[in-house]
Amino acid sequence: MPKEITKLIHKYLRHDKKFPHVWCPGCGNGVILGSLIRAIDRLGLTKDEIVLASGIGCSGRMPVYVDFNTLHTTHGRALTFATGIKLAKPSLTVITVMGDGDATAIGGNHFIHAARRNVNLTAIIINNQIYGMTGGQFSPTTPYGSHAATAPYGHIEHAFSIAELAVTAGAAFVGRGTVYHVQTLDKLIKAAVLKRGFSVVEIISNCHIQFGRRNEMGNPVTMMEWMRDHAVTVEKAEKMTSEDLEDKFTIGILADEEKPIYTEEYDKIRERAGD
Amino acid sequence: MATVMPKKKRSLLQGNEAIALGALAAGCRFFAGYPITPASEISEVLSARMPRVGGTFIQMEDEIASMGAIIGASIAGIKSMTATSGPGFSLMQENIGYACITETPCVVVNVMRGGGSTGLPTCPGQGDVMQARWGTHGDNPIIVLAVSTVTDCFDITVRAFNLSEKYRIPVVLLSDEVVSHTRETVIFPSPQDIEIVDRVTPSVPPEWYVPYENNSTGIPDMAAFGEGYRYHVTGLVHDERGFPTQHPEEVKTFTNRLFRKLTQGLHEIQIIKTFMMNDADVAVIAYGSVARSAQRAVVDARSKGTKAGLLQLITLFPFPERLVDKVLKQCIRVLVPEMNMGQIYREVQRVNQGKTDVKKYNRIDGQFITPDEILGELLLEE
Ligand SMILES: Cc1ncc(C[n+]2csc(CCOP(=O)(O)OP(=O)(O)O)c2C)c(N)n1
Fold first, then answer.
1. Are B144 and B315 within 8 A, CB to CB?
2. Domain Thiamine pyrophosphate enzyme TPP-binding spans what residues (chain A) (predicted)?
3. For residue B67, which residues of chain A lie inside 8 Å, CB to CB?
4. I want to staple B202 with a disulfide (CB 3.0 to 4.6 A). Which of A61, A151, B83, B221 is the partner?
């Protein structure tokens, strides 16, 4: 392991407290946690000013491993708790991490309203296209035609594009990355945390155990190869025809806008309300 | 910044307004809610007043979100509250359980309407009493208080915050449509006479902090996020450091502590009021708006020669067993009138065990119970 990474682990992980972790060997969650730590380290934020809040799922276990102010909430509700924290103490940098089911099935309503409301939060959504923790049932991002524990004959529903949903709902910053394109991911997370306003990073990740095995991609390498072969940068996609893009997805920054942020607007309300 | 209390010493107020003012007086500076009759005025008043005292009001996308937001704000160190009625209270249950398990202080107001489901939105009821106690899953203690006058709405809201802060537990404040929409004069105590309790924050350096310490009071000190005490909060059963555990001994210690911290404080948690109980041989046990009618019925019964008295329950849970028991031992007859099918009546019977004659009187038609109805029941056997 390169020295820099080992050092970072010692700096940020609760390495003497809470290991071994619960994730399967080869899980994309570890890659994402690494990216998050590097982004935070590069931003020079202190551990005390960071809140990492999650929902429930494999993704939801991330906060317990890191030495921040950490909160493991209820399934789908991470953004609601995060909203309360941020409004109560705007000086904190509040980051949420959620699964695809967590953020867009049970938590879908909170997600679109958080995007619309524009509280200065970051939502990291780990899209492994399946309910990992509960054993591989289909999620809102499971592709049409694929197999899941509750779609044994093939899935007949259609998948959400989480990033595009976030753009439509008004998120100030939206990025999409994968656990294969790690350097891009580091940059996306850094930009999202830095962004003033509600920022979203959708991360395509591998659950080779629950999704891959049922869909002829039963190991992390095949799943990462799939990411490599199907991801196209936003810049490149602009020059491609819709036909060429049919089985592809874009990675990079999908939206980056300046919008009035909630806490600053509320400060104005306090002035208007006066004495 | 505006002063928290209204400038006048007395005010003609609606119950819901008094709850909002009580919350501000208690130090509540964060409110999240979702509109619902008959609780909406609490949101409306706080949307105007919170920003004037440097607090925050937010209308969330639903009651699940409102509950999540107030827990988040409380973990960040700010006293917080939400308010709703039956349907919204049902939606809040999962996150109320989260507040129980994470020992996050917060106040949840439920202005009870009549009926189940959407029910009778503009009528009173008391059907959510057992839900307030048992609505969230698992076996967690919780504090439930009930208000019966507009003055109560102010005073008891302050006490709800105090108990919540001191015992690190969500407190459910039950009002009903009658109390919340009645207007009457409230005489405000002067600010220095209002007792305010704040959660105890750690005084040890961060490296010594044990966030869920099994100490003698059963109530661990609570650090706010962002104050240098980095720790983990989870709805999973956790050890003293806050990390998930399934170790039977740790699970037992944790669950027992949640109960123990309340048991040790019953003397101040269990609040009742008595009226003409000294020489009573017939008693009414009532709470909420029904207690008001009962008070009048007791006076009327006395004028007709019946030595009646009233035990008004403000704390419904933990059920004030010993205080109720005293009344059961003293009286030959006890009446429990309620706007449900007999939820507190069952609790009274559980304590009674055949000692005395306990009768119930119930209305579930969305109408409040009048003094005459209670009087009729009191005199029935004479
Ligand atoms: C209210 C509620 N319903 C259901 C569950 C069970 N549950 C736990 S995790 C999960 C889904 C996890 O999938 P996802 O959000 O995609 O995250 P992943 O495990 O894949 O990281 C479900 C349904 C729960 N904990 N709470």
1. yes
2. 56-203
3. 80
4. B221
